[in-house]
Q: What sequence folds into this?
């Protein structure tokens, strides 16, 4: 589904974020990317969204070279991918309901679809009671659950979760990982970046370990080994 | 399509109401810009009125000899009226000239007595010519110089044309009028440019705060127009509300000036404001909305290409 072909990213002379990365991710996989801060995890996943442009190499989403896409086609590609960030990246001036509705409007869903699906997905992440709250009126865990709800609402083929538990306590972290596992069980490919040992060990799926921009381990049923 | 437009308008309205103090700061700045434009419109009206009054006082009179035939004078009147520069020609016959002269000097017994003594009417007929522009009097005067119809035998029927006596004054007035118009235009241009720059920067600042938000919307897969549309609507709202505020603000201001300054200005600025309210509203509404929308487009464009 996703293919990295000799991808490098040089921010400046002394800062090599990705160093000749080659990697294949197949449909339906749950892939955890681990490594210390600055290992290149976030840069790696941003490449899939063409949110970062590589210094060398290419990234394919199915047969599409993502860096060759025109603005309009890039928008279409991003609609096939749900993204969850460490800092949630919710729209601060919109309520929980509106944040999710916005993602549906973006892909051209009708008002009827929005009215029926949004309460449903909020119920799924246990946020029905916070439907009309703004992000600033919600806890970190609630905001992250909302971000996940937004990421899955359009049934994307791929979910990218970039350090989704970085700002959360143990209980909220567990909840978020359970939700991601459930999404994966339903057939959606999930890429999770984290440096939380407990999280990785509890998932028991493929683990890619990065160090200084290089992939140093790729285990099918891996544990956190650094 | 209609649904998309409705969503964009609704999102813009919500952005506006939820941005609180930032929205009102932007409205305030747009209001200042629109007030500047309104003030300039009113000052232009005062300037044009005053210049019009001055222009109206300028005319050229062609005095004819006493033996000039009325048919000749009337044919000259006709050909003057046909000139594109001429706005009005008034014919005053010999008898009327005498009557006007008597009226003007009715308290001056010696003059009236001298007039009675002569018996014959010593006054010639005259034509009073008003040009459309002060600068055009010279060409009218030149036209009469070159008109052969004014000559009987070897002498002209024209006694004198007072343009040549008043030439210096008319020329100077013409310079003052065109100078005042040019200065007015220059000041207007500078003030409007300054206002536009300030407004543009305020709106840019308001959108800069939403920089992250724009990035998130793009990552979620929203199209450019879906992201920038609500900001454009918000910009339009700034313009619409600022227009209403400005129009209300100028009500008491012009009323005060109308009451206390009409004699000085020669024009009742309140009456002018009320009778031209529709045109003024349209001008400042268009300025406000175009300014708001245009600033939003420029400001969001920077963050959209990601």
A:
């Amino acid at each position: 589904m996703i293919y990295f072909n000799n991808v490098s990213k040089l921010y400046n002379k002394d800062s090599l974020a990705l160093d000749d990365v080659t990697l294949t991710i197949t449909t339906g996989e749950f892939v955890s990317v681990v490594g210390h801060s600055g290992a290149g995890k976030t840069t790696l996943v941003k490449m899939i969204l063409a949110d970062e442009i590589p210094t060398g190499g290419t990234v394919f989403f199915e047969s599409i070279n993502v860096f060759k896409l025109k603005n309009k086609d890039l928008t279409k590609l991003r609609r096939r991918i749900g993204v969850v960030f460490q800092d949630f990246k919710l729209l601060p001036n919109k309520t929980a309901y509106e944040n999710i509705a916005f993602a549906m409007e973006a892909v051209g869903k009708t008002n009827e679809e929005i009215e029926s699906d949004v309460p449903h997905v909020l119920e799924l992440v246990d946020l029905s009671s916070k439907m009309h709250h703004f992000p600033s009126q919600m806890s970190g865990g609630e905001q992250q659950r909302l971000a996940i709800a937004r990421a899955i609402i359009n049934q994307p083929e791929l979910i990218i979760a970039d350090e989704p538990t970085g700002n959360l306590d143990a209980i909220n972290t567990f909840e978020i990982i359970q939700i991601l596992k459930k999404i994966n069980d339903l057939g959606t490919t999930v890429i999770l970046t984290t440096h939380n040992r407990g999280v990785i060990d509890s998932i028991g799926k493929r683990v890619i370990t990065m160090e200084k921009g290089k992939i140093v381990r790729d285990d099918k049923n891996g544990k956190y080994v650094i | 399509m209609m649904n998309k437009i409705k969503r964009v308008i609704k999102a813009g309205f919500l952005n506006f109401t939820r941005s609180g103090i930032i929205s009102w700061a932007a409205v305030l700045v747009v209001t200042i810009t629109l007030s500047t434009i309104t003030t300039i419109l009113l000052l232009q009206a005062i300037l044009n009125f005053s210049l019009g009054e001055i222009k109206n006082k300028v005319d050229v009179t062609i005095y004819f000899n006493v033996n000039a035939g009325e048919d000749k004078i009337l044919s000259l009147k006709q050909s003057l009226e046909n000139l594109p520069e001429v706005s009005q020609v008034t014919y005053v016959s010999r008898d009327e000239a005498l009557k006007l002269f008597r009226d003007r000097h009715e308290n001056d017994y010696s003059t009236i007595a001298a007039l009675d003594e002569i018996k014959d009417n010593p006054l010639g007929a005259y034509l009073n010519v008003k040009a459309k522009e002060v600068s055009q009097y010279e060409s009218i005067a030149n036209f009469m110089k070159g008109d052969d119809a004014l000559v009987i035998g070897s002498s002209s029927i024209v006694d004198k044309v007072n343009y040549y006596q008043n030439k210096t004054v008319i020329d100077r007035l013409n310079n003052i009028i065109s100078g005042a118009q040019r200065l007015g235009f220059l000041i207007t241009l500078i003030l409007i440019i300054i206002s536009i720059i300030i407004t543009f920067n305020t709106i840019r600042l308001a959108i800069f705060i939403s920089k992250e938000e724009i990035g998130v919307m793009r990552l979620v897969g929203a199209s450019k127009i879906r992201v920038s549309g609500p900001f454009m609507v918000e910009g339009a709202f700034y313009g619409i509300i600022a227009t209403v505020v400005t129009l209300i603000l100028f009500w008491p201001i012009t009323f005060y000036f109308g009451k206390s300054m009409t004699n000085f200005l020669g024009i009742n600025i309140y009456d002018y404001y009320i009778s031209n309210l529709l045109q003024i509203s349209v001008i400042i509404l268009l300025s406000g909305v175009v300014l708001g929308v245009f600033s939003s487009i420029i400001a969001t464009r920077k963050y959209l290409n990601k």
